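Regression test attached.
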Amino acid sequence: MAEAGAVAAAVAHNEKEGERTLNRLALAFVALGLIFAAVAASSGDVFFFRLASEALIFGGLALSVDLLLGFAGMLSLGQALFFGLGAYVSALVLKNLLPSFWLAMGITLAVATVAGMVAAVISIRARGVYFALITFGLAQVVAKVVYNVPRLGASDGIIGIPSIRIHLGLFDIDAASPAGFFLFCLGFMMLLYAACVYLMRSPAGRVLAAIRSNEDRVPFLGYPVGLAKVLAFVLAADVAALSGALYPMLRGFVSPELLYFEVSGNAVITAIIGGAGTLIGPLYGSVLIVGLRSVIGSYTSHHLIVIGSLFMLAVVFFPQGLIGFIARRREQRRLRRVAVVP
Amino acid sequence: MHGLLETLQFVYAPQVVNGLSIGVAVILMALGLTILFGLLDVINMAHGEFYALGAYLAVSLLAAGVDFWLCLLVVPLLMLPLGYVTERLLIQRVFNRKDRHVLTLLLTFGLGIVLEDAYRIVFGPNTVRVDSPISGAANVLGMYFPNYRLFVMGVGALIIALVWVVVFRTRLGAMVRAAAHDRQMASSLGVPVSRVYSGTFAFGVALAGLAGVLLAPIYSVFPTMGKDFILLAFTVVIVGGMGSIKGAVIAGLVLMQIQALASLYISPVWTEPLLFGVMVLVLMWRPQGLFGKLGNG
């Protein structure tokens, strides 16, 4: 009996250590972001600030994929649906209603929550690959509709979105300033990340982990599977939409391409290369992928071959991804240290 | 009474025949998908790219002076080793892991991305047209239909019937089904399971390639041609029940009739959401699709 208690304590300790590793990696991400900002600002750069802001925004999308894939074991192939939804809602609010950051974010959050619930009702009953294919189809259908609705700009999208100032209480940030907007994106994404981490380490997050390992057993333990999955789905929809809402502030336009499968697929690639189930991995992954695409893009337009091959190699040889790999290496080292002591 | 007949003949009948011809095309795609899932547990996201490859191979062979009818035979034969190698090099590597459904889906998704970009490099980004090997049109029920479309419908039906015979009425098919049903048992009875898996994958890929050749003269050939088709094929497979050949055929015919007839009343843009709505309703009622599975997929 006492032995079982000791094992449980050791497992809990190990888990805490693992969480601490991820926390450190998250802090390192912020530090790297700040160092980059300092270097880029001192050289008066614009291009790399914009690129890095984009990496962060698409990192948020990958984060939402990881929420579903890494924790509930639900592979969404249509997360671009919510990303694009956020971008369109934010663009419409900023252009037609009022160029206010908080209003755009608030309306995006509300719309995404409702849309997430509707999509959850449609897709949540399906499991495994069925879920993946339904989310894929759902996003594809919505993209087709948006592409053909003239009031949403049809194939051209919406252009001419006014540049805004983001009021943060003590000070304002001009979204047109490359450095300012990058720092804002960094802060915003880390807030989203922290919220996700908090929720996933809470009891509700544990239910998701239980669903992932054995969905059929969870109801016998008295937890509502359906509710937990709907909540995870809506949370992921909100994260994706809020990330998407930043897109028109960065680029000044939105287009139906944001809803396409390429975007969803890219988010899955990013989450897996970065490390599914780590939450910070997708942000690292996004920086990696966006950076890689930009570097390859300066030589050839065929970056997809490289990224696709990299992705296949990751699935076969590094299924735990970059951050998952690092975290596991540290864990092994720690356990070896512990094991040496008799 | 006279008016009603004319409406039937000139408004509905052409749509029904159109729906049939698209239905056969979609079923050819769906057939490969459903076999790969039912027998191998693999969601082949690269199926559309293999379909495109079939079309591109036909374009290249035609340009080299090969007869179209020979292409119909040669292209699937060329695709067989390709599918075999793909299964050996990629699918086998993750096949024994726990979440192989998701892993094979991700792998074939990656493969699809690479292939699509490769087509852009090798064959160029532009759309290629393939001349129809059968010209002219035939009079059906007082309406004219291109002969080639009628030919595709006939050949498609023949292929579907052949696949069914191979899977359910031959020794080879029995071995494949046995391997899918219980790997260990089939293996101990002397079925070379791993080769059967690779062979089945090759068969599915060849089927996609054959569809590519057959449909190249109807739809034009371009790098992303598989993408537009794959969602339709997946819808058919899901509604019919993943892994069920009968389900794919029935769902393909019914869904394409719905699409064809609905496009008389609503804008074609909305027919795809309509089909998707039908799929969602079917899934709410029967999450496993209309028909049971083949093997234990």
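Expected vs. actual: identical. Residues 46 and 177 of chain A are 9 Å apart (CA to CA).
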